[in-house]
Amino acid sequence: MAVNFSPVEIFGSFAPLGAYASASSMAVPLISAVVNCTGRSICSSSPRSFKLCSTVVKPGLLCCSVDGEAGERVEEDDGYLIDGSAGASLKNAQVTGVDPQIPERDYTGTPYVPIFVMLPLGTISMKCELVDPENLKNQLRILKSINVDGVMVDCWWGIVEAHAPQQYNWHGYKELFRIVRDHKLKLQVVMSFHECGGNVGDDVHIPLPEWVMEVGSENPDIFFTDKEERRNHECLTWGIDKERVLRGRTALEVYFDYMRSFRVEFDEFFEDGFISEIEVGLGPCGELRYPSYPANHGWMYPGIGEFQCYDKYLMKSLKKAAEARGHSVWGRGPDDTGSYNSKPHETGFFRDGGEYDGYYGRFFLKWYSGVLIDHADQVLTLANLAFEGTHISAKLSGIHWWYKTASHAAELTAGFYNPANRDGYAPIASILKKHETALNFTCVELRTLDQHEDFPEALADPEGLVWQVLNAAWDVGIPVASENALPCYDREGYNKVLENAKPLIDPDGRHLSAFTYLRLTPELMEEHNFTEFEGFVLRMHALGATTLSS
């Protein structure tokens, strides 16, 4: 089988985005596939349908798949990949063995699911200035033209309160919000109390505030710590939520003061309903979890990660819990848990029949996950005080690797007490319900079959995890939103999102309350990718079906 390409203009009708359409971008050398923290290339081969993307597995092998045999070799002229339009990637492609049309489910009459798009991480500079406003305006106009409902932006603690406690600089965000409002788009705002950089997709580095790092240099126990006493600077340990170690304030007071300042500063945007939701950051990457799989500590997919409870504050809490239980010897971290890149069966704690399900193991895991739930409880209480009358949400990460094992080791180290014999997400859903907080869950675009093909040893099951978490939230009656975990430009990924967004056989007609697309990039704005995205928006908005023609 061969696919022939002809050179095309990079962005076609989107050429006004001049910052992205340049002669040098017409052809780029073939590069290796980008692999993210879940171990998948951005576009993976699949036996279900034909797709093309600009990710290349190795020289001469284009990331594509065809009905029947997956991953067949596709030759590209001169060893270069042309980032072209839909016309170049489909109309000019000569493909054999592909059905003329792949029918899509008709979404006419289904619930309307709003679509938001995350703005680039570097939209606001470290000086709190808006970067390239004219280009942003062009992009917002294009998003509005296909009826995207709004955008999401991170309000970085490390930018706004960078230099001194309670000295906030919101200047760049004010300019940004006015531009977004002028384009008649809604806004979701993330209270980002974490570091940016070091995780997949992070193309900028935004550390925690300077003054916080100065406190940390004197007292490194304000950061999460693993058993080797390596500190993680992504966010503050939950052990100091009620400890006055941040220049006279507790961590909870610091978070509340920041949120209250934001609410006062942007009152006009709340009053007119422009800000539709506040997502409250609760941990690394803004997610409610421990930083158990940090790439900067050597973690690689599908490692089980490590427990992050060895700072002096959390260890004090653990010892207190053990004494209250009547077993002071349990006031320690577990033994034989392996390292970041271990597999469950290689450890005494996580293996089948391991200590995780023994008396001590159950005590430790209940305490460890309880700290996570208590942190969410405390912060969301304050968020509702600061943002009374505004929709609040919290993000949960989709840790799907080792889901098909008994212990669910990667979930346990992240704080989700969800082994095969226990539902670890129902308690989290209950605490969100207590605060009338929506759940934002990731990885709804991932297919279990893809995971099995790429990393069969990981025993991953993203579809099973999504089903469990979404139903835990729906069962307690809270709204469920979602976002893609990885860059997604292809029909299969969008179809998987749609399946989860609007379950076909759900007798109660439950559906996602919103979907946020990760994220606004030059790749999304390429004509073929954007055409696919537009079709996805139409179907999420209940405007029927489309077909993929050869």
Task: Give me a quick take on this structure.
With 550 residues, this protein is an alpha/beta fold.
Compile the SSE list and pairings.
Layout: E1 27-29, E2 51-58, E3 61-65, E4 80-82, H1 86-91, E5 101-102, E6 115-118, H2 133-145, E7 150-156, H3 157-160, H4 171-182, E8 186-192, H5 210-218, E9 223-225, E10 231-236, H6 251-265, H7 267-271, E11 275-280, H8 312-325, H9 359-386, E12 392-396, H10 409-414, H11 426-434, E13 438-441, H12 448-454, H13 462-476, E14 480-483, H14 491-501, E15 514-517, H15 527-540, E16 548-549
Parallel strand pairs: 6-7, 6-15, 7-8, 8-11, 11-12, 12-13, 13-14, 14-15
Antiparallel strand pairs: 1-4, 2-3, 5-16, 9-10
